[in-house]
Amino acid sequence: PRVELKQNYPNPFNPATTIPFTLGGESWASGRQPVVTLKVYNVLGQLVAIPVLQGSGQKLEDVSLSCADPAGCSYTAYWDGKVLGSDREAASGVYLYQLVVDGRRFTKKMLIMK
């Protein structure tokens, strides 16, 4: 698969979760780097968080990812469960997380249970 957004784990979670995703080798065709954004929204479509890339701590917003394996690479995002720009924990409920790779969108649901 070119791009695969996997289910977060644990799910449901409290207080933090991990979001794995994979980019196939085609993502780097012609020597370009894919631009990736991962955001978490509530059911009203409001932005709740921008997870970070595990290992680098870099916010996953318009990030160019590199990969040494021609078959593709797997990545892991981490969300501490806090609302963007605050120390408040997100409320219990259903959230959507959306991965955007070069303009293509992939979306899954996650659940916070307190």
E-strand count: 9
Outline the biggest β-sheet. Answer: 5 strands, antiparallel
**Which whole number gives the mean pLDDT?**
95
Termini, distance in Å? Answer: 35 Å
Q: Kindly estimate the percentage of residues that lie in beta strands according to DSSP.
A: over 45%
Count of DSSP-assigned helices:
0
User: What series of H and E elements makes up the topology?
Assistant: EEEEEEEEE
How much helix, percentage-wise, in residues?
A: under 10%
Instruction: Point out poorly predicted stretches.
Output: none
What structural class results from the helix and strand content? mainly beta
| Global morphology | elongated
Calculate Rg over CA atoms: 14 Å
Describe what you observe in this structure.
- The protein is mainly beta and 114 residues long.
- It is 0% helix and 46% strand.
- The strands form 2 sheets. Strands 3, 4, 6, 8 and 9 form a 5-stranded antiparallel β-sheet that branches. A 4-stranded antiparallel β-sheet has the order 1-2-7-5, with no helix packed on it.
- It is elongated.
- The termini are far apart.
What keywords describe this structure?
46% strand; mainly beta; elongated; 5-stranded antiparallel sheet; 4-stranded antiparallel sheet; 0% helix; 9 strands; 114 residues
